[in-house]
Design brief:
Elements: H1 12-32, H2 55-68, H3 70-78, H4 96-103, H5 107-125, H6 130-133, H7 153-177
Helix pairs in contact: 1-5, 1-7, 2-3, 2-4, 2-5, 2-7, 3-5, 3-7
Amino acid sequence: MPSDPDASLLERDTVLRQLGEAMKTLDWAVSLVPEGWSHRSPYGRLSREEGAWSVAMNLAHLTLYEERLPATVLESLLRGGDGVSDTWFKEPSPYEQPAMELAAIPVPEILSRLRAAHEKGVELAHRFPEAAWSAPSTAAWGSMGLGPTRWSPARVLSKSLQHTWEHGNAILKVAFFAPRELAD
């Protein structure tokens, strides 16, 4: 069975531990967001068109990504599928409108869904035999699922880790730099 050339960087326990740590950091970042700022974009802008996404929009996007991509790709691979046919690659715009709708609900509810999606990915990761963990088995993420089969289950969850940090960084910016009343 072919193996990912970077498999040594993608050891299962390390990737899963780091994914768990990323979720803890994300929870911490959200807890730092000033009251009233979870649904506002940074710098006081109220709409996505005027600036960066709000904390709620970043969390909603992450949640939908985790529910629709890693989970469905891994489930497909475990069933012997290609990791592409059952995913969002068949939809024209999988995130924008659903993310805006999800972002309108309270942040604790969005975080709960995101945690559940992350936990599902971890559970699925443990179901792969060791040799399959780093074996290229899906074209997901390559040319909208039409590229070469280069992604292993290890890379699928490593992408989740990178994506969590990417949006977690945006949330930290709001947490650290949202205007607060100055203390005397």
